[in-house]
Amino acid sequence: MKQKIVFATNNAHKLEEVAAILGESYEVMSLREIGCEADIPETADTFAGNALQKAQYVKEHFGYDCFADDSGLEVDALDGAPGVFSARYSGGGSEENMTKLLHNLTGKSERGAQFRTVIALLIGSDTHLFEGIVRGTIIEERRGEGGFGYDPIFVPDGYDKTFAELGSEVKNRISHRAQAVEKLAIFLNETK
């Protein structure tokens, strides 16, 4: 029998990606599937804190073992900004966020950055954290049509194309989220 576990998201793409990595042993359920309609707050100042907030909300209100993630872009020359504010950096959408980021990097030669994901898992009475990081460089102009967020301006180390140009198959294999989910999957499959 499949073990049920909740992923604190309603993002269909993320659910599909995670379910594929976790394999046949787990039934991954979304917030919608357990009847959670709440807009769970993310008010912590770290990715781990936000992920824990979401997972704890589900565990406390619905009783399910649960995991949640938070992720974003950290730019070296901007002291780690936009960080936990990545999705709402400009107050607008992805285009506005990229415009603000590129503006804030004007004249800066240091363009190193990283995407970071932290997954918080609450299983039984235990809490576990899993992290994935992909280093890269912020380029000066957008390239590529795929992806979302900052993908058109982020070139991962070891590649000459942006995440947007690499396509979802390559990105999903090397991304920060893929790394964190892989660690989660190994842990879950070893402990069941």
What are the salient characteristics of this protein?
single chain; 192 residues; alpha/beta; 5 helices; globular
How would you describe this structure to a colleague?
Helices cover 34% and strands 24% of the residues. It is of the alpha/beta class and 192 residues long. Strands 2-1-3-4-5-6 form a 6-stranded mixed β-sheet. Strand 1, helix 1 and strand 2 (26-29) form a beta-alpha-beta unit. Helix 1 (12-22) crosses helix 5. The protein is globular. The relative contact order is 0.15. The model has no long low-confidence stretch (mean pLDDT 92).
Topology:
Layout (H helix, E strand, L loop, with lengths): L2 E5 L4 H11 L3 E4 L17 H16 L3 E10 L18 H11 L7 E12 L2 E13 L15 E3 L6 H12 L1 H16 L1
Parallel strand pairs: 1-2, 1-3
Antiparallel strand pairs: 3-4, 4-5, 5-6
Helix pairs in contact: 1-5
Task: Give a short overview.
The chain has 5 helices and 6 strands. The chain has helices at 12-22, 47-62, 94-104, 163-174, 176-191, and strands spanning 3-7, 26-29, 66-75, 112-123, 126-138, 154-156.
The computed structural class is: alpha/beta
Overall 3D shape: globular
Largest sheet: 6 strands, mixed
Individual helix count: 5
List low-confidence stretches.
none
Fraction of residues in helices? 25-40%
Order of strands, widest sheet: 2-1-3-4-5-6
Strand content: 15-25%
